[in-house]
Amino acid sequence: MNISDAYTNSFISERSDLLLEMEQFAEDNYVPIMQLPAIETLLQMLRIQQPKRILEVGSAIGYSAIRMARAVKQCKIVTIERDETRIANAKGFIARSEEAERIELIEGDALEVDIASNHEAFDAVFIDAAKGQYQKFFDKYSPLVKQGGILYIDNMYMHGLSDLDMKDVPRRKRTMIRNLHHFADWVIQNDDYQSTFFPIGDGLLVCIKK
């Protein structure tokens, strides 16, 4: 850890025993959860925004859903996950949290489940799922965001792969990285959104709906 990392980490708040357990579980089981500096940034933005309804695309084990619910009191979280093992783990962790009644877990593929018919509009959407599908997620869920609402999109660096020349990207990941680049270019140029990229954690893109 260099001096800059140590200074950044000094601003990370203490977490409950449950959150620490989830962080260790994620590390031990190779489950990707948001890096601490990035999620602290996201949570602070949410505290400022004070959304009443948040949609999360990609629950994993429920870590970010619980943290968002704790950061913004009284908000409702709807979170989508398709992996059966992660769903089972998320259910267990969420049930043990104090925020369980404010978190609704939808089981299924985020590109196939019907959210619009059964839920009101959202103040915020957090996308942290299949990186090569970000354009499709944005197209499907941005219409559900209220005017003035915000879409938060994690993993824009894709663990550093987005910064590489395409010839240096592993062949099996090139399509995903191309899709990510195309999405980033498209959303930055989209006049319907005011978009800003934050080089924190694995890269956080924030899009305000005009």
Give the helices and strands, then pairings.
Layout: H1 3-9, H2 17-28, H3 36-49, E1 53-57, H4 63-71, E2 76-81, H5 84-96, E3 103-107, E4 122-127, H6 134-141, E5 145-153, H7 174-189, E6 193-198, E7 204-209
Parallel strand pairs: 1-2, 1-4, 2-3, 4-5
Antiparallel strand pairs: 5-7, 6-7
Helix pairs in contact: 3-4
Catalytic activity: 5-hydroxyuridine(34) in tRNA + S-adenosyl-L-methionine = 5-methoxyuridine(34) in tRNA + S-adenosyl-L-homocysteine + H(+)
GO molecular function: magnesium ion binding; O-methyltransferase activity; S-adenosylmethionine-dependent methyltransferase activity; tRNA (uridine) methyltransferase activity
Protein name: tRNA 5-hydroxyuridine methyltransferase
